[in-house]
User: Fold this.
Amino acid sequence: MLDTNGLPRGSPARGNASHWCPVSSQPIPTRVVLLAGPSGSGKSSLAAVTGLPVLRLDDFYKEADDPTLPLVDGSADIDWDSPRSWDADAAVAAIVELCRTGQTDVPVYDLSTSSRVGRERLDIERTPLFVAEGIFAAEIVSRCRELDVLADALCLRGRPSTTFRRRLARDLREGRKSVPFLLRRGWRLMRAERAIVARQTSLGAHPCAKPEALGRLAAAAAGRHRTPAAS
Assistant:
């Protein structure tokens, strides 16, 4: 969980961070840290280490029968790495509702079937900070800034070969898609990884490795917001 006097230590599961919140009868302003980065860069594991509430932005993917889903150029594969495969409006609405009320209903998405299989209530209580993580998090940096709910925006980056191995192992373990699809996607993303990080940076997410990301999250948890400036 986050040590607001320094870098976080330990690896607790996702939890409620209200124990470090100041107790007050006044409403506590809640803000979000958007955690972006290429698929397999370690966003989910980093978010879990913080002990902060986590909104999984990948749960806002569109469903497989949505006619607006884009295709990979020259292929019949759906391009799940395109922002057009994701419902940004619903994700922003959920973030704003969490900041205003401390709770919201979110979809439960099954990546293996590319469908929403239910809904669940996410309640962050009075926690003044939460993490929203996903490969499209950078796409909504400017909107969250304009709505005055943004504490920070980060883009995890690392070695493309390491990201490739981590992503493939995770996707095979979880049975997210067929093996041929995962291999095609993996090679494509490895070649494009530097461009992906560059795009997310241009959208306002600060590129960094895990240690710096943890430090910035600790600063946000302590109330030292680093809201990215408009580009």
Q: What stands out?
A: The first strand starts at residue 31 and ends at 36. Confidence is low (pLDDT under 50) at residues 4-27. The radius of gyration is 17 Å. The first helix runs from residue 43 to 50.
